[in-house]
Amino acid sequence: MSPLVKIRSERDQMSAVERRIADFILENAQLLRDYSSQQLANALGISQSSVVKFTQKLGFKGYPDLKYSVGEAIARADNGDVPAVAQTGGGEEEGAGALWRRKSEAEEATRLINPPQTLHAIAAAIEQAGRAGKVFIIGLGEDDIYARNFALRLSLLGILTVHNFDTARMTANVSAAGAGDVLIVFSEHGNHPALCKIARYFRERRGQVITVTRHTANPLRTLADMALLVSAHDERPYIQPLLYQSALQHLLDNVFVHLCEEHDDRHAQLLANLDRIQLMLEP
Known about the structure:
Elements: H1 3-10, H2 16-27, H3 37-44, H4 48-57, H5 63-78, H6 92-95, H7 97-112, H8 116-132, E1 135-139, H9 143-156, E2 161-164, H10 167-174, E3 182-186, H11 193-204, E4 208-214, E5 226-230, H12 240-262, H13 264-281
Parallel strand pairs: 1-2, 1-3, 3-4, 4-5
Helix pairs in contact: 1-7, 3-4, 7-12, 8-12, 9-12, 10-11, 12-13
């Protein structure tokens, strides 16, 4: 794994000092070879031991090992072997090619923190709920855009979904939940009190809770039986939401593909429903 991808994927879990080190490395990766651990510490106004601990926490033997790995990653990027390192400057290339690159990096970081076995287990839970029960889906605000879209996709596969963006109505709906049912909760930051209450109530009904949040420690995630995690960070407030949305959609697409490819009858149901919709839309 590229050290830059690893740093980016773990950033949301870091302390404030660790995030400062991570951001400096990500933004100045091509200059890192010219910095000793003491110079890096001086530039950030922190202790040298903080830099050393940071590198060791990432699994490197020490700062020289990290610096060498970053140098290798940059060399591979220059040769076209991996995506180039994100820059923070301006210009036409930054506004176009760099955005694609940052999205690709966010998707890669998100892929690394959601291993195949996790996606398989989540798809299996949804499939089982679709056979013998229901899949409840909720998201508030912008999170509902992805909740609504995912609910539609599951419906096209013939999976009974109960989607709502109203917490009071979802609370009432959850009263009909039982063992084997699944609740999928979309919440970027995972700290909405009402969603946490719904998740607790659903667990009391012996259903499984799947959360979709950022890769951070948050109240909602602690209530999850399984979790889909998104790693997407950028210091620019107009870029960070774009990275989150792109990585989240890519993650949901992977779960959907699992459901389609592992169950032939679901795939057949999808094609049949698409044909019906097309006939309905035709004049």
